[in-house]
Amino acid sequence: MAKTAMDLASGLGGNIDKKEVLSAVDQYEKYHACHGGDEQARKENYTDMVNKYYDLSTSFYEFGWGESFHFATRWKGESLKESIKRHEHFLALKLGLQPGMKVLDVGCGIGGPLREIARFSSTSITGLNNNDYQITRGKVLNRVAGVDKTCDFVKADFMKMPFSDNVFDAVYAIEATCHAPDALGCYKEIYRVLKPGQSFAAYEWCMTDSYDPKNEEHQKIKAQIELGDGLPDIRTTRQCLEALKLAGFEIIWEKDLAVDSPVSWFLPLDTTQWSLSSLRCTALGRLVTRNLVKALEYVGIAPQGSSRVQSFLETAADGLVAGGRKEIFTPMYVFVARKPLSTSASPSSGAQ
Ligand SMILES: C[S@@+](CC[C@H](N)C(=O)[O-])C[C@H]1O[C@@H](n2cnc3c(N)ncnc32)[C@H](O)[C@@H]1O
């Protein structure tokens, strides 16, 4: 169901004390290159940086995008909502999910994909997330969807998961592990909790082979995406693949799905386009939301700092559209990776 202005206002700032939202925005922005921040500080303080980002932005995501916080490949004639669901079903099929399997969703947001995939595949899914506010929202939505008996949430960092070794029949991550300060550390944790012979599939945010780290325009686009999406450092597709192999996985399949998506994934964010099915992302939609948030902030219903959040989310949208157009960035580098049945060779400890 579409969120109203009051839904948006009530969630602004997430679990941050309403009086602290403005200073949280200041602190968040200072982590990023666009505001003089550096990569090392973002990586060392990733928990604080990422949690501030999601406390500040989750209500905007729900208002403007829906319950699933990811992009999707899209066919002509398909609505944004339909494409998002199909993108989720596709990952479930690639993983070969079967009824009764015990599945882990790494970085589950408020559980949009978790509810859809659980109902699509009749699996029992645990959503792992380090953001308390999102878990509170997810629990409410799981009850509404009727999956609260078979699916649950665990509040924890995916760099140190509170699970025993070899417990999950399948693991997936949708546009989430890009928040990890180091891909190898994150993939190794996923490898550890997965049963031997079982698979991990993900959609990763990556810079592509067309990204030139010496090109100033490319650097600017990368920094805009990092600021607007709470990322310490966007890795390349090659770095992700290398980290998966070092973690011990066998690569079953990998592809950048952005390359041949009939409708560009960034279309809903492109202000030169008009779309009724993603009205709140269009130029007019953004203008209306901007003024709405300003008004809510002015009358004291939304906390001070809310407009600044809307503004860095717009920076993200601009960076994403530019990165997508130039094909230097993709939010849908997909892979299926298997933990070998025999795991006698210990995964490498090489840095990433
Ligand atoms: C872009 S959202 C995607 C959410 C969800 N997969 C979806 O598609 O709706 C990224 C998610 O990763 C979670 N996350 C980021 N860093 C994390 C960490 N270190 N441990 C656990 N979750 C994390 C965030 O809180 C957020 O829920």
From TrEMBL:
Keywords on record: Lipid biosynthesis, Lipid metabolism, Methyltransferase, S-adenosyl-L-methionine, Steroid biosynthesis, Steroid metabolism, Sterol biosynthesis, Sterol metabolism, Transferase
Record-level GO cellular component terms: endoplasmic reticulum
E.C. no: 2.1.1.-
Keyword Signal on entry: no
GO molecular function: sterol 24-C-methyltransferase activity
Domain SAM-dependent methyltransferase Erg6/SMT-type: 53-340
GO biological process terms, semicolon-separated: methylation; sterol biosynthetic process
PROSITE patterns: SAM_MT_ERG6_SMT (PS51685)
Family to which the UniProt record says this protein belongs: Belongs to the class I-like SAM-binding methyltransferase superfamily. Erg6/SMT family.
PANTHER family in the cross-refs: HYPOTHETICAL LOC100005854, ZGC:194242
Annotated protein name in UniProt: Methyltransferase
Source species taxonomy: Eukaryota, Viridiplantae, Streptophyta, Embryophyta, Tracheophyta
